[in-house]
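Sorry, can you check?
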Amino acid sequence: TFLIVWFFRFPQLPQKQYTYTAILHDAFHFFEKMSYTLSTISMKSLLSLGALIDTSFEHYKKNLPSILGTTLWLLAAAIPSAIGIVLSQDGDAVNVTTWMSFGFSALGGIIGVLASIHISVALIASLREQKEGNITDPRVFLKKAFSLDLSYVWATILKSIFVGIIPLIPLLISIGAFSFALRSENGMLVNVLAIVAFVTILLALGGALKFSLHYNFVPYATVLDGKRGMESLRTSAALVKGRWWPIFWRVFLPKALYTLIFVVILAGTLWTTGIIGIALSQGSFFLAKLFALTNFFISTLITAGLIPILLLTDYYVYENLRETK
């Protein structure tokens, strides 16, 4: 700061009238104004990674009863799959019970997907109320979510088209051309198309990553702000525009941290129950099914704890983007 002031002010005045003490005084004054400016700008900047993690986890702890009151319905949705495990048979024989086991497992998978969508919508709908310190009744938001489920699903389908299908089209074309070239005897053509296919793979992955972040906040625009269809995609993209890398780290790193923690907990728990199950079952298919059922509900329970913290991270980034845009 001293050098900046000296560079701009010293040539303007006679040396006798502008001493080093005066330069130092102006330097401190300049620094004071810059500090105020930077503090004003920081109020409108994105949350730091540390603040984001602290804020989302504090929200999670504070509202844990209400959050679990919503997500634990996943256990109820898992009952058909649990019945499928109970009905499973030892050996390769196919009978009515085997088909019933398969049917319940398939039904449980479908119900699990639908329940996950509904619960996610209910959670997102309740986050803003929880942030403002209001007490939220899970039943109210689970009921409210029914009116938002179709809009959420449609917005998710549109998002998937941009994230998954559009980047995939040039990739499929290039791979198809490369496969066709392999049948020919033109070595040069094969080499060129192999390079093109490799580059296209990189571009497709880059495009998928780019679009996934651009449209990462579609669920929040849909559920919280009433945006529908393409409007929710445009809203999300407008918030991300010009801030892709800062947002990428704020979305990716906290999720990676939380996922790693829950995966370690899950792996440790399943490893422990697996060791116990092997020691106790001693070839008993009934006990093996019992431990498989236990592991299934443990996995569902841990998933019910992981989903909210992932949604909370994106929610606070979304709100921060709306405030600083």
Residues 1-8, 10-16, 35-43 have pLDDT under 50 and may be disordered. The chain is about 80% helix and 0% strand. The radius of gyration is 28 Å.
